[in-house]
Amino acid sequence: MPVSLNGSTSGSVTITAPAVAGTNTLTLPAVTDTLVGLAATQTLTNKSVVLAAGTASVAPFNLTSGTNLTTATAGAMEYDGKVFYATPTAAQRGVIMAEQIILLQSAYTLTSQTAAQKLFNTPASGQVTLSVGTYEFECAYSLTAMSATSAAYGFALGGTATFTQFYTTIAKKDTGLSSPLSANITFNTAANTSISGSNTGTGGIANISGIINVSVTGTVIPQVSLGIAAAAIVGVGSYFRIRPIGSTTVTSVGNWS
After folding, report:
1. Using one digit for the tens of pLDDT, what is the confidence trace for 170-183?
2. Is residue 168 within 8 Å of residue 186, measured between CB atoms?
3. What is the DSSP string of 28-89?
4. Mean of pLDDT over the chain
5. d(CA 76, CA 66)
């Protein structure tokens, strides 16, 4: 039977579980309510937790930012306001990768210019907004219809965020993209860097991976630059993915010593 607390905005009701299993629903009337009386660690024996479906304004599950355990406990999930963590076995806390990704499903024709420009046009600005923290990223793209005049192409990260960057590139420039030709390998910290060899090839492929450390929140834009201006085409399947790995001072996550 239902139990109601009337005539006051606060109070307490003690509910005793029935001796025979049944279907019971506890409804809290206010927008924000606190359920107290549970132990610090509550165990549900032979029970599963079923969450209601999410809506456009309410997530089915939400962790509040807090302080991580001093000693990571097997099975624990945590959130420190920067990244999510999970501990599969005792003391081995690890980062749960929450990636943001942009992927070309249709070819994109670049503006004919040599200055660095966005690699992606869907969404239109091709940029991601990042908060302060350290991030790992990966980018792969293909180019066709570049100028047949000998030149190279490059990679850059633009935007309004303030960050430092460290990345490795593997790139080649040739007319045929599928042939196993030698590629150029570079390590860079500069904002805009030539990553391919200079030749008359009109196609190119590149794979870039690295770390950026964002000290001021803002946008980050994956970019490409062309040695000779041309209406080059970024191919279908080109992508950029980025995931947080910790604060701006993170040096390790896990059972390192």
Report:
1. 999 988 777 667 88
2. yes
3. --SSS-------SS---TT----PPPP-SS--S--PPP-PPPSS--TT-EEE-SS-EEE-SS
4. 88
5. 13
Q: What residue type is assigned to position 10 of the chain?
A: S
Task: List pLDDT tens digits, range 75-97.
Answer: 999 999 999 999 999 889 999 98
Residue 52, pLDDT score: 85
Predicted confidence (pLDDT) per residue in 8-42, tens digit: 556 666 666 666 666 666 665 555 555 555 566 66
In the chain, the domains with their CATH numbers are: 61-96 (no CATH), 100-246 (2.60.120)
Q: How far apart are the first and last CA of the chain?
A: 57
- HSE at residue 148, side-chain half, CA atoms within 13 A, is 2
